[in-house]
Amino acid sequence: MDTVLQFLQTLQGFPAYALVLGMLVACGIGAPFNEDIVLLAASALTLNHVMEPVPLLVVAWFGILIGDGLVFHWGHRFGARLLRSRFFARIVSEEKLEAMQNRIRVGGPYYIFVIRFLPGIRTALFFAAGSLKLPYRQLFIYDGAAAVIELPLLVYGVRYVGGNWQEILQLVEHFQNYIVVGVLGAIGAAVVWRRIKSSSKKEAT
């Protein structure tokens, strides 16, 4: 990971954007390095004009959506069958997949929005969401919306602190749980409100 980031610093223009795109897609499909670190380190390089903030945001958005979309597609296409192979069974067991599916069923498609803010288990959760045969449009709407919020905060946050992305990473790790709890609370309230509304309509008829 350190070697790749050092190599990124030697690039400029299209090759730099292409490497960031490839790394984010790889992160999305389960590569053993941290997506947030890639984004933060790339953001720091905008201060050296290796990349520019707006093109980086666009490239990062597509990289995230492509990676998440591939995992979602594999879940949609193969489901639990894929986990019967030794390699994939080590990543997510069928029991864990079922637990994740139940969590997504409770939260509904809105839970896809929350998944973007859950480092470490994003890949498994997107696979679980796909295995439930949720429509692809729900992935792109909710995951895309979450990325639109997350990416500018990371990129401009790093620029604001003068490229010290390690400082932003500590803040992200510290506040991520609070963000998730807040979003889950909002989703829970929306689900309860929808059920109350639907029950009152049934009673009225």
What does this structure look like?
The protein has ten helices and no strands. It is mainly alpha-helical. It has one domain (about 1-205). Helix 2 (about 15-30) runs parallel beside helix 4 (about 55-80), helix 4 (about 55-80) packs antiparallel against helix 9 and helix 6 (about 95-105) packs across helix 8.
Describe the secondary-structure layout.
Blueprint: H1 2-9, H2 14-28, H3 35-45, H4 53-78, H5 86-91, H6 94-107, H7 111-115, H8 122-131, H9 136-160, H10 165-204
Helix pairs in contact: 2-3, 2-4, 3-9, 3-10, 4-8, 4-9, 6-8
Q: Could you name the key traits of this structure?
A:
mainly alpha, 78% helix, 205 residues
Biggest β-sheet strands, sense, barrel = none
Number of helices: 10
The proportion of strand residues reads under 5%
Rg for CA atoms: 19 Å
Residue ranges: pLDDT <50 for 5 or more in a row? none
Structural class: mainly alpha
Which H/E pattern describes the elements?
Answer: HHHHHHHHHH
Note the overall shape. Answer: globular
Fraction of residues in H or I helices = over 70%
Mean pLDDT: 78
Number of domains: 1
Distance between the termini: 61 Å
The strand count comes to: 0
